[in-house]
Specification:
The chain has four domains: 345 residues, no CATH class; 80 residues, no CATH class; 187 residues; 254 residues, no CATH class. 34% of the residues lie in helices and 15% in strands. Strands 16, 17, 18, 21, 22, 23, 24, 25, 26, 27 and 30 form an eleven-stranded antiparallel beta sheet that branches. The longest helix has 25 residues.
């Protein structure tokens, strides 16, 4: 049988599996029992299209909905419980030791040793006598294979098989040469689904989708919210389509969806050598994304190791007759595509196809039997792998895996015709053309990229490979192109932002003082303060060299770039660069929100349009004004590649100089930025399917790799994965898991506003402090202001305004025992995020001293005040005012205030960050005290480097108001509103989890005149309208003249503006926020 007959036979078998179409017309009457829950305190409600039979949120403790500070977490002591040892271990001592050994890490760190002591040696059932005859090899052998007759087998164990592909020849009379690749390790998908629904974690599975609605307490309007996959339109449609299917004969079980979310990405297993793996993971969208995103939650299911083509296949290709050097490369690429889809042909086996159509009968967590239907929703991968899955050419003329837009039109992203073209020209698989093209290749000897094959495939950058997703699941309703969701990490942080940052560096090098400007940029990055627990890390190396930077590093660069680039470019271009950086950071913050609404999606869409216009204007006005060349790093990498490809390993003289480099917008990654709004509306927020989840799962494999002998790596990694999985399951089955990792309790700290230790290890006598620092402006009115603060709080006066003048008699009534206060090092501030999670910030006067509080003004122009914490202390005090003295414990922050700059316009209207400066020491309110309960969050204040340092607010010299060793201050600071998503939402009125009173104040003070989608007005500027009209005219006539730099093979790793901010000419909307 030739290949075309085989393909047609496969398609016919798949079609035969579908139910025959009846000649009798049927009318289906669907009765819906809708249910809407009451609106909660945040204004949220659930709208179920059908009344749910199971509510999983009752199994999720609130401690999993927030991040608890380890210094404030309280653990309840329970009485020790003695468990029977899980099979096959003879006693609990050996079981605990083997669990510790297979925990997935090879580093004997402090945490690892502490876990050994706590979980093993100090356990109530630990007995040293049990270790007398202990053997690691025997215990592992018992874990891997039972020799006593009892089997510890699970239906989702690993299977190894071989994959055979056909290598086409160029001779019509020669049959394709079969080539077998051994060692495809996988787990059957149906059995993985059965095991997942039998797992203890299935108690948190959502089986009934719903819409999340929000009623704004400010004005009462309702809108749709987007977050989880099970609240998305994709799941609601799948559930609705499922209910419309004819029921299995005689079955009355409830029909529910198992939402499959696939991740795959090749990864290096070691820092040196060529060891790599190509794991395939599946997550269940039934589980909340907050658990799925944690690599230690047990929600990741490793289901396969995709094999790569062995090197020796080149020998087979070279032996083929009439194959040129170019033809060898094309044939090798074709074989790689064939291998990938052959692996998926094995995974999408008949059992899975039957389950996709008829469901899987299984017992769910509540004990009820249900019929579970697997549905593939998303497949997250980087671009080269997306091209493999979509069976299109990597960087072809139509490189988008979702639509058919030519690459030459990518730079017109954001205009109306661009968005319209995307939706009107979605990809539809061309099965007939592909089968015909394969017949030309396998039956008639045409080359895989010959003219006849290309003409048969037509436009769309298709390749002659059968797409197994389209072939097998397409008739069952799967859209294999829509499931290829956007990838914020690879396509933005490591893609478009990296490309923009790289070209900004090229522009700096192109300036007359280029080397000095780049050195200044690196120096500024090193002076950026850190923030939070790893939120913004120290920029230790030269950032311009971009050495071994991960996606999180590029994210940090973006969040801090605005004040760093300020003033480095000539004034005519500096304003444009500042506006572009602001728009990019704003778009990135919105695109990465974990909770969206109709309003925030409208905000994202409008921001994308503005960013698109900024990018094109940057390319034409700024980039074309300079002759930019390769960076030194790019030049060295190009020469290295050339030397490796050449036979002499020498670089010719003509290639030693730097090449010209232009800013290229005609890339898929820029084009993909236009798909975010539509994808979020259909599948939920980007953090649910980001490839970062899969990258975190790689950690376990990299931890297992040193435990192998480096031979047949996939098989050994699969063995280690099975050990850990079996240990977890037998522990859950024997109820031992509670003793190993107790169920999290709800710590009291989740509801507290802040925590300050009650330590008395650092007592300070007030008058000794004043005497030792006599003449320090920071202590000029220390004691009177402290007594003012005490009077405000003990008399329960409104401390927001502090406009009351106390008499000397009232001051004398304040009693502080021994005139002593007690300083501590840190304070933890707990807060509720915009997506209703509990988080905390740590305030440290030495490392993270800046905080933000609500403005105390009646009609504030800016919603917040900012302060630098100079000290954190507590004290005992009471009032001796004639009444009964009641001693009270007060916690106090000693602060130095910062005020917003006058006449500085900021916010999304002006595309500028807020700027603040220290209050002049002559002002009586330059220093003061703050109730810790007033602190909202820690603030990230980045020096406005272009304004320099000085002594305008505080005289030159040492002071307790300055870090040790510094004699002056930064004159101005930029408020880092993009430091994280919650911080950004605190400068909008759209944070659902933020108090309604605060959101109303923000809305009023920032100038939001209307709600929702009208954050950006419809009356855009005339110059922007002209640009849009010009782009519309050029859209249809653009040709494909620019080429995108390849992301590489899938088997390889990716390694002076004025303060008024009026330079942004396209941001003059009257109804945009200004502060």
């Amino acid at each position: 049988m030739n290949y075309s007959e085989s393909s047609q036979s496969s398609s016919a078998q798949n079609s035969a599996a579908l139910p025959a179409q009846s000649r009798i017309r049927r009318v289906l009457l669907t009765l819906r029992d809708m249910l809407q829950t009451p609106f909660n305190t945040f204004g949220l409600s659930r709208l179920y299209p059908r009344r749910p039979s199971f509510e999983p949120d009752g199994f999720v403790p609130s401690s999993l909905l927030g991040r608890t500070c380890p210094t404030t977490a309280e653990h309840t002591d329970s009485s020790p419980r003695i468990f029977a040892p899980p099979y096959p271990f003879p006693n609990m001592t050996i079981y605990r030791l083997m669990s510790w050994m297979n925990s997935g890490t090879t580093r004997v760190s402090e945490t690892k040793v502490a876990a050994l002591v706590k979980d093993v040696m100090l356990a109530e059932d630990f007995d040293r006598e049990h270790l007398q005859e202990f053997s690691v090899k025997q215990s592992l052998r018992a874990l891997d294979k039972d020799d006593t007759g009892k089997r510890i087998t699970f239906p989702d164990d690993w299977i190894e098989t071989n994959i055979t592909i056909n290598i086409p020849t160029k001779l019509k009379e020669d049959a394709p040469r079969p080539y077998t690749i051994s060692g495809f390790h996988y787990r059957p998908l149906v059995e993985v689904i059965r095991a997942a629904f039998a797992d203890a974690q299935a108690r948190a599975f959502h089986l009934s989708p719903f819409k999340r609605l929000w009623k704004d307490p400010i004005d009462g309007h309702e809108e749709r919210m987007y977050d989880e996959l099970y609240t998305s339109d994709a799941w609601l449609e799948a559930q609705d389509d499922l209910q419309k299917l004819p029921k299995v004969s005689g079955c009355t079980l409830e029909r529910v969806v198992a939402g499959l979310m696939f991740f795959s990405d090749a990864t290096h297993l070691a820092n040196f050598g060529t060891a790599k793996a190509w794991p395939l993971y599946v997550y269940f969208g039934n589980l909340t994304k907050y658990l799925r995103s944690s690599p230690t939650s047990g929600s990741c299911h490793l289901v396969g190791f995709l094999p790569s083509l062995p090197d020796r296949i080149k020998d087979v290709i070279c032996s083929l007759p009439r194959v040129s050097k170019t033809g060898m490369a094309s044939l090798h690429t074709h074989c790689r595509r064939e291998l990938f889809h052959a692996c998926w042909e094995v995974l999408l086996d008949p059992e899975f196809l039957y389950a996709y159509r008829h469901g899987i009968v299984t017992k769910c967590a509540d004990g009820l039997m249900r019929r579970v239907y697997p549905r593939i929703f998303t497949y997250s991968a980087d671009y080269p792998e997306k091209a493999l899955i979509a069976t299109i050419k990597d960087m072809g003329s139509c490189p988008c895996p979702r639509c058919l837009m030519p690459k030459g039109l990518f730079s017109y992203l954001g205009i109306a015709r661009d968005m319209k073209f995307r939706f009107q020209n979605l990809r539809v698989y061309v099965m007939t053309q592909v089968v015909k093209a394969r017949e030309f290749i396998y039956a008639y000897g045409n080359t895989v990229d010959g003219a006849k094959v290309e003409d048969t495939l037509g436009e769309g950058s298709w390749v002659p490979v059968l797409n197994r997703f389209a072939e097998r699941l397409g008739p069952l309703g799967l859209n294999p192109f829509r499931m290829l969701v956007i990838d914020l990490m690879h396509e933005c942080e490591l893609g478009t932002w990296k490309a923009l940052f790289t070209h900004l560096l090229r522009l700096l090098y192109a300036l007359p003082e280029g080397l000095q400007l780049v050195a200044t940029l690196d120096e500024r990055f090193r002076q950026v303060p850190t923030y939070g627990s790893g939120v913004i890390r120290r920029f230790a190396n030269n950032t311009s060299e971009m050495k071994r930077l991960a996606a999180r590093d590029f994210e940090d660069i973006l969040q801090c770039a605005i004040p760093i680039f300020e003033g480095l470019f000539p004034a005519v271009h500096d304003a444009a660069v500042q506006s572009l950086l602001y728009r990019f950071a704003e778009w990135h913050a919105l695109a990465k929100l974990r909770l969206h609404s109709d309003s925030t999606l409208a905000f994202l869409e409008e921001t994308f349009k503005k960013l698109s216009q900024k990018l094109r204007k940057f390319r034409t006005d700024t980039c074309d004004a300079f002759a930019t060349q390769e960076l030194p790093k790019e030049k060295a990498a190009r020469q290295k590649r050339f030397a490796q490809r050449s036979e002499t390993h020498e670089v010719p003289p003509e290639s030693t100089g730097p090449r010209a480099k232009k800013f290229n917008l005609n890339t898929y990654k820029f084009h993909a930025m236009g798909d975010y709004v539509g994808t979020i509306r259909f599948f939920g927020t980007t953090d649910s399917f980001t490839t970062q989840i899969g990258e975190l799962a790689h950690r376990a494999l990299k931890a297992f790799y040193p435990l192998t002998n480096k031979l047949d790596t996939p098989a050994q990694l699969a063995k280690h994965e099975r050990r850990r999985r079996v240990l977890r399951r037998v522990a859950e089955a024997s109820d031992v898991s509670a003793s190993i990792s107790p169920s999290p309790v709800d710590p009291p700290s989740l509801g507290k506003h802040h925590h300050i230790a009650c330590s008395r290890n650092d007592p300070v006598a007030l008058f000794t402090l004043l005497r030792e620092h006599d003449g320090d402006p920071a202590l000029k009115t220390f004691v009177p202001k402290l007594k003012d603060h005490v009077l405000y709080r003990l008399r329960k006066l409104d401390i927001s305004f502090c406009d009351h003048m106390f008499t000397n008699e009232e001051h004398n009534s304040v009693i502080i025992p021994n005139d002593t206060i007690y300083f501590v090092n840190t304070m933890q501030v707990h807060y509720t995020t915009y997506d209703m999670r509990r988080e905390y910030d740590t305030v440290n006067p030495r490392t993270h001293p800046d905080v933000m509080v609500l403005s105390g003004e009646t009609t504030p122009m800016h919603p917040y005040w900012y302060a630098r914490v100079l000290g954190i202390f507590h004290m005992e005090t009471w009032l001796n005012d004639g009444g009964r003295p009641v001693k009270q414990h007060l916690e106090v922050l000693w602060v130095r205030w910062l005020a917003p700059l006058r006449n500085h316009k900021s916010g999304t209207k002006h595309a500028r960050l807020p700027k603040v400066a220290f209050v002049d020491e002559s002002d009586p309110d330059a220093f003061g005290f703050l109730d810790p309960g007033q602190v909202i969050r820690s603030a990230h204040l980045i020096p406005a480097f272009s304004s320099g340092r000085g002594v305008s607010s505080l005289r030159h010299g040492r002071s307790l108001a300055r870090p040790e060793g510094e004699l002056d201050d930064w004159e101005v600071f930029c408020v880092g509103i993009f430091v994280d998503r919650d911080m950004f939402m605190r400068y909008t009125h759209l944070g659902v989890g933020h108090p309604a009173m605060v959101r109303k104040m923000i809305k009023d003070s920032l100038g939001f005149e209307s709600r929702g989608a009208t954050i950006v007005s419809d009356s855009n500027e005339a110059d922007m309208d002209d640009e849009i009209n010009s782009d519309e005219e050029c859209f249809a006539g653009c040709d494909d003249t620019e080429e995108e730099e390849s992301d590489g093979d899938v088997d390889e790793m990716e390694d002076g503006n004025s303060d008024n901010g009026e330079g942004d000419s396209d941001d003059d909307d009257d109804d945009l926020p200004s502060f």
